């Protein structure tokens, strides 16, 4: 699945070298799932696999603007950690069929997915050429 996702990234970003695309795909698919204790270990392993290759910093442009606008519309502060988590969720959803968000009460789980939902919906509604008209949420009862 990493290679499939890397291929999709390469088609979207043809100007980046293959090593950077593969590194970006590996990080996109794994970093959001790791604990804060495991992230430095993962980064060390990746640096050993790709010595001298830096992870490219992508410009999310319209998406980041829509996320920041939604955060302000919701009366929240634009905190970079939350924006990063929202973008990580976006990348995770692009590479996986489903996602489960877990964490402590008050850790921002609902803020992250709801902000992404409304930001994407607003972006798609503003683009008349886009056939998508919004994000649907389907909640399930975990105790069912």
Description:
The chain is mainly alpha-helical. It is 57% helix and 0% strand. It is built from 6 helices and no strands. The chain has helices at residues 2-12, 18-30, 39-49, 61-73, 80-95, 109-126. Helix 1 (2-12) packs across helix 2, helix 4 (61-73) packs across helix 6 and helix 5 (80-95) crosses helix 6. The longest helix has 18 residues, at 109-126. The radius of gyration is 16 Å and the shape is globular. The two termini are 30 Å apart.
Strand content: under 5%
| End-to-end CA span | 30 Å
Main sheet makeup: none
So what's the overall shape? globular
Radius of gyration: 16 Å
**Number of alpha- plus pi-helical segments:** 6
Give the number of DSSP strands: 0
**Quaternary structure:** single chain
Uncertain spans: none
Class computed from helices, strands and strand pairing: mainly alpha
Mean pLDDT: 87
Helix content: 55-70%
Q: State the order of secondary-structure elements, H for helix, E for strand.
A: HHHHHH
């Amino acid at each position: 699945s990493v290679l499939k996702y890397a291929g999709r990234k390469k088609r979207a970003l043809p100007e980046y070298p293959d090593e950077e695309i593969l590194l970006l795909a590996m990080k996109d698919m794994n970093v959001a799932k790791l604990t804060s204790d495991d992230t430095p270990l993962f980064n060390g392993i990746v640096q050993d696999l790709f010595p001298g290759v830096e992870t490219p910093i992508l410009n999310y442009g319209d998406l980041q603007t829509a996320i920041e606008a939604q955060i302000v519309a919701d009366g929240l502060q634009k905190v970079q950690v939350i924006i990063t988590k929202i973008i990580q969720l976006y990348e995770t959803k692009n590479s996986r069929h489903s996602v489960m968000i877990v964490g402590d009460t008050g850790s921002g789980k609902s803020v992250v997915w709801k902000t992404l939902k409304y930001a994407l919906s607003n972006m798609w509604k503003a683009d008349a050429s886009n056939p998508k008209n919004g994000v649907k949420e389907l909640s399930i009862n975990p105790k069912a």
